[in-house]
Specification:
The protein is an alpha/beta fold and about 260 residues long. It has a domain at about 45-195 and about 260-265: Rossmann fold (3-Layer(aba) Sandwich), CATH 3.40.50.150. It is about 35% helix and about 20% strand. It is built from ten helices and seven strands. Strands 3-2-1-4-5-7-6 form a seven-stranded mixed beta sheet, sandwiched between helices. Strand 2, helix 5 and strand 3 form a beta-alpha-beta unit. Helix 1 (about 10-20) packs parallel to helix 9 (about 230-240) and helix 9 packs antiparallel against helix 10. The longest helix is centred in the first third of the chain and has 13 residues, at about 10-20. It starts with 7 loop residues before the first helix and ends with a strand.
């Protein structure tokens, strides 16, 4: 794509570089380091996706999976192709209007419930998969308690969640990494791993363009990945300042619009 010197992408990249190139220190919040530092990778800058994590942890002896907030079951084929036994659940009133009719028509395939009590016995699943769902919860404690209840001992919750996003349909909460830890602990689960995802600067600038009439596939779309321009700039400044791998990952996490998580019961 050919960009002008004053295109949104060029201006964003220059803004980020004007900050990172002048960096002399990295001041991470003490609570971030203390509370979630152990959940970020200290050995590699690889930022795994929730999909990749599902592949990594697959165990033929533990393959019962709940697709929590599955919508129109878009992830079902991918999940079943890995080898999981898929079950989907959602709350029809919380589904985005564009797919609500499709979800309602799949009532026999998808367990539709009231958003309070999941319609499954205790310990029914080995994995709960949640892709951009937790920011729609109406009662965090109740929902997390139900997830923990239907999860078998040692089971995992794997997913992705918004941290600083304002525009999702029927969005209620944004999960900070520490908020994820608090909610997990209250339900008897442990925050095991965090990975940075889309950076906040590219994400919000792109969303502003879309809101004001640009296509979803605009010039900032290519920046939206864990190896995009902003993430590379943060990794670059981490290298220049001799930061540890853990601190670079915490820096990236701090400025991620969304992040990937792993919880364990």
């Amino acid at each position: 794509m050919s960009l002008s010197a004053n295109s949104p992408r060029d201006l964003l990249e220059r803004l980020i570089l004007s900050i990172t190139d002048g960096a002399t220190a990295c001041h991470l919040d003490g609570s971030l380091v203390m509370e979630v530092g152990d959940a970020v990778d200290a050995d590699t800058l690889e930022a795994k996706s929730a999909e990749q994590l599902l592949v990594d942890v697959f165990d033929p002896a533990r393959r019962r999976l709940l697709d929590y907030g599955c919508g129109a079951a878009h992830h079902r084929r991918f999940i079943e192709d890995i080898g999981y036994i898929w079950t989907g659940a959602d709350v029809i009133d919380s589904v985005a209007p564009l797919v609500r009719d499709d979800v309602a028509a799949r009532a026999g395939e998808i367990a539709l419930y009231d958003g309070v009590t999941l319609p499954f016995p205790d310990g029914s699943f080995d994995i709960v998969y949640s892709m951009l769902v937790f920011q729609h919860l109406r009662d965090i404690n109740q929902s997390f308690s139900e997830i923990a209840r239907v999860l078998a001992p040692g089971g995992l919750v794997i997913g992705q969640v918004s941290s600083m996003e304002q525009m999702q349909d029927y969005g209620t909460y944004n999960f900070t990494p520490f908020g994820m830890k608090v909610a997990s602990q209250a339900a008897g689960m442990t925050l095991e791993r965090l990975y940075p995802k889309h950076d906040v600067f590219s994400f919000l600038a792109r969303r502003l363009m879309i809101t004001l009439g640009a296509s979803d596939d605009n010039e900032l779309t290519a920046l939206l990945n864990p190896d995009g321009f902003v993430q590379k700039a943060l990794m670059g400044v981490g290298s220049r300042l001799n930061l540890s791998t853990r601190d670079v990952n915490l820096l990236r996490l701090k400025f991620s619009m969304q992040y990937v998580f792993v919880l364990r019961k």
